[in-house]
Amino acid sequence: MTITEEAPGHVGSRRLRKEDPALLTGEAKFIDDLALPGAIWVGVVRSTEAHANIVGIDGAAALAIDGVNEVLSGEDLAPLWGEGALPCAWPVTPDMKNPTHLPVARGTAKYVGDAVAVVLADSRYAAADGAAAVVVDYEPLPAVVEITDAVADGAPLVHADLDSNECYTWGLWGDNAPAVDAAFAEAAHVVSERYLQQRLIPAPMEPRGCAAVPSPAGGELTLYSATQIPHILKVMTAVVLGIGENKLRVVAPSVGGGFGCKLNVYAEEILCSALAMQRGAPVRWTEGRAEAAVSTIQGRGQVQHIELAADADGKVTAVRVKLLADMGAYLQLVTPGVPLLGGFLYHGCYDIGLYMFECTSVFTNRTPTDAYRGAGRPEATYAIERAMDSLAVSVGVSPEEIRARNFIGADAFPYESAAGLVFDSGDYQTVLDKAVALADVDGRRAEQAQRRASGSSKRIGVGFSSYVEMCGLAPSRVLASLDYGAGGWEAATVRISPTCKVQVVTGSTPHGQGHETCWSMIVADKLGVDPDDVEVLHSDTAVSPTGLDTYGSRSLAVGGTAVYMATEKVIDKARAIAAHQLEASEDDLEFSGGVFSVRGTPEAEVPLAGIAFAAFTAHDLPDGMEPNLEAHVTYDPPNFTFPNGTHIATVEVDTDTGDVDLIDYVAVDDCGVQINPLIVEGQVHGGILQGAAQALYEDAVYNSDGQLVSANLGDYLVPSAAEAPRFRLDSHATPSPTNPMGVKGVGEAGTIAAAPAVINAVVDALRDLGVTDVDMPASPQTVWRAIADAQGGAS
Amino acid sequence: MIPAAFDYEVAESVDHAISLLGEHGDDAKLLAGGHSLIPMMRYRLATPSVLVDVGRLDDLRYIRTGNGTVSIGALTRHSELEHSAALAEACPMLASVAALVGDPAVRHRGTLGGTIAHADPASDLPAAVLALGGTIVAQGPGGSREIAATDFFTGYFESVLADDEMITEVRVPAGSGGWNYQKFNRRAQDWAIVGVAVAGGGAGVSLVNMGSTPVRASGVEAAVAGGASAAEAAAVAADGLDPPDDLNADAEYRSHLARVLTERALNAAGVA
């Protein structure tokens, strides 16, 4: 039975978020709002060179500034971390190269933004003035900037102590090679495409920041950080600095978004913690927006080569993928694993025969990459969905027809994919059919034909993207097989107070999603209480000691399921007490609307409130039962969940200027059962715009010296609401059999789907002009040049 | 994103502002709406040691019409230009262009005098004033002077204003004639990648972000005056210019855009 069938009404409703009043009134406290009298402010001096020996650091001018107290180099700070270094938790191969990554560089700076010294000051302003005044003498070294440069013959080395810039090569099913070769030899149609995934700057509303507050008497430390992962950060900080976990508490205050970039253990967190322990005073740092562009991880950064073999009907018989992935200068927490998360999905939602995936990851003299909304899955979806359109052209059928011929059938679930996953549920064809109808594809095509015929400079294009992704990270044993350095479970405690209010403690760590609202709705429906009578505690390791935090659209499918199961466990205990009070058998009790009653004897009933109070007083509990009404569950999912959907973008391209106008966007998603459709729609809207941003706007542009040219939000074009298309959404839920609520996850779906839909639409608009590919971002200039090149030179 | 330290003075009057400028020399900058200056300070691209705040000089917030001229006080906000019924009637082009500057927050703070003094070649209103044949009134220690817009801009963020002068008023002829403004950008709130202002049915044509200053497209004006079609006139829009190269557009593409947008603007302004 799914929760929607038994729900009295909260789950499935468009309930407003309980988080919002505090956020909208400014009452919510973010990291920089914390008042910490006497705190030492850290200013970080960052390398202005992509690769250089640090010859000297002159802090005299900085120290002359009022309020600047110390200037410390990487050498000065080295004793703080001793043998410790910033952690990478995902050694994807035994021979993966993982260069020592110090919080502050010693000897050599490896990228623009690499910390090379720190200033300690009395205020944030003095810290900024001081950092700007430190003079660093660099001896420039040759820099490796582009991915392809890293693997070129004679390339300079990012790390002189390694014999190449290659970090690792990881493959899936390499023994398929002869069969795959044969499939390509026999194929009626072969598609071979090369795509570039530009680097992206995550740019959450709130940049990073942290504050470490020691309690010198007992040796304890509290680390406040704008992080998605207080629990993981606690373990890692304890390990890196050798602080007992019993002495360490990590708190994530209100966090203004992350998109994956706060799924990390950063230099500043380790630096502030170590300095606070050493100085016995609070030490804090708040990231600036311009600083964030180079000091926080970036996303994507891949060169993709995808090949499809298909028979005469366009049925795909083999998919072969080779990636070059940019790690940046160092490995952050899960940097090397990001391409692998996509590696399982380059065949998309298609029932293909054979699959080969290989990724070579390389070091470059650029900011490290790591997880960014979708983390590997947007890249995979982009490649397969672009390539499927090329196959459709080759076969001579429509984009929807080539997809229909290859979809995994609705009757095939659970479906074992060619990459070795077991997809839980789905009905891809119905989803696509709904999207086609909603987008009025036939009408758009008629308009497209008419405009082409009239020679209009405003071309219409319709682009498809059918996706499947993996959420609900993750079964711990599967993570073990991928050499990931943690489990994938989540923990929850549900307590009912003497007055029948409910306290939920969750290991999930919200940073904008709406966990408090959704967890309250789940619990309220199960217990028959009002969602406003449920409090949700989170994001503080002293309050919520066990948890694995929020990323990868895992919270609902794993953390929410833990909450659901803990609630059931509480109800089981309450039922035993109710049976005791009513002198009835537990099997004869019904629980509905917050009341236990004896089946067939409706006057024999006891409300949950009575049981809660009885559990509190413990005056009359069944023999051997512990007092209090609470339960704890740690849930390790048996499988991933597999959200899917079809998105259709419609664009109007001005062929005179190259300008692309996203005039309509239809998304039909299957994220399983929806707890709160309002929150689902918000996630899908934001996700689509973030994906469309990669397609049309955003690009972390480096020049040949390794300088980030698009280093501010005037040059790095994060789109605003004004650029958003009209979103028209529908859904088609196939409940996941993996968890009791049938939920799948939706935090990344829009981003995963949108980029190929938009670029496919742009190419569709221009295909009659000879355009077959447009690089991302499809800026007006890029589109104009693509048209000009296809027409045989600039117009 | 933390500006360098600076002192802050509030000007009580234009005379006071000018005397403060005289006192601090080129270390001082006038602060009006601040939406260009303060971002530059936060990036430490500008590090004035003194800010002289003229934003409270409300007697410089006005739009007056008469005798064929529209006179606008330098501290008039873009949003006031955008929503002024008097301006919509007397100079609809200026009201319309003001509505395209930045976003609502910028338009409620930014001032006409400020955007002209800032002399950013990518800004909308300087080019509009140029196409309209406007006049800039500036006051210094020695009194007021009138400067034709065509003589005002001298280079990137540079003008003929002396260190101790401030703009007090901008004048444009009433009636925009056949007019149009084409602004091409990627995000609604951005500066124009290229913009084209056409006033007086093609008698005044100026270009945004096609050089180090807002530029008068005199070749286009001459062609229109000589009876050329919009397409013929637009073909020379980028001639002789040295447009910038940036992430949005290189010089070749900018020149192409200038031609396309000039033709569109001329057409919309009534030039066949």
Keyword list:
heterodimer, A: 795 residues, alpha+beta, Aldehyde Oxidoreductase, domain 4, 30% helix, disordered N terminus, B: alpha+beta, Uridine Diphospho-n-acetylenolpyruvylglucosamine Reductase, domain 2, Uridine Diphospho-n-acetylenolpyruvylglucosamine Reductase, domain 3, Enolase-like, domain 1, 3 domains, five-stranded antiparallel beta sheet, four-stranded antiparallel beta sheet, globular
The amount of beta strand of chain A, in percent, is 15-25%
Order of strands across the biggest sheet of chain B? 4-5-10-6-7
The number of domains of chain B is 3
CATH H level, superfamily name of the domain at 489-635 in chain A: Aldehyde oxidase/xanthine dehydrogenase, molybdopterin binding domain
Task: Sketch the topology of chain B as an H/E string, one letter per element.
Answer: EHEHEEEHHHHHHEEHEEEEEEEHHH
Poorly predicted spans of chain A: 1-7
Average of pLDDT of chain B? 97
The CATH class of the largest domain in chain B is identified as Alpha Beta
* Chain oligomer state: heterodimer
Give the helices and strands, then pairings:
The complex is a heterodimer of chains A (795) and B (272).
Chain A: H1 3-6, H2 20-24, E1 40-46, E2 52-58, H3 60-63, E3 68-73, H4 74-81, E4 108-109, E5 115-121, H5 124-133, E6 135-140, H6 147-150, E7 166-172, H7 177-186, E8 189-200, E9 209-215, E10 220-225, H8 230-241, E11 248-251, H9 267-279, E12 283-286, H10 289-295, E13 299-310, E14 316-328, H11 338-343, E15 354-363, H12 377-395, H13 399-406, E16 415-416, E17 422-423, H14 428-438, H15 441-454, E18 458-468, H16 476-481, E19 490-496, E20 502-506, H17 515-527, E21 534-537, H18 555-582, E22 589-592, E23 595-598, E24 601-607, H19 608-617, E25 629-635, E26 644-654, E27 659-670, H20 677-696, E28 727-731, H21 749-766, H22 780-790
Parallel strand pairs in A: 1-12, 10-11, 14-15, 20-21, 27-28
Antiparallel strand pairs in A: 1-5, 2-4, 2-6, 3-5, 7-15, 8-13, 9-10, 9-12, 13-14, 16-17, 18-26, 19-20, 19-25, 22-23, 23-24, 26-27
Helix pairs in contact in A: 12-13, 12-21, 17-18, 20-21
Chain B: E1 7-10, H1 14-24, E2 28-31, H2 37-42, E3 50-53, E4 63-66, E5 69-73, H3 78-83, H4 85-90, H5 92-98, H6 104-109, H7 112-118, H8 124-131, E6 135-140, E7 143-148, H9 149-152, E8 153-155, E9 158-159, E10 166-173, E11 180-184, E12 194-199, E13 204-208, E14 215-216, H10 218-225, H11 230-234, H12 251-268
Parallel strand pairs in B: 1-3, 2-3
Antiparallel strand pairs in B: 4-5, 5-10, 6-7, 6-10, 8-9, 11-12, 12-13, 13-14
Helix pairs in contact in B: 5-8
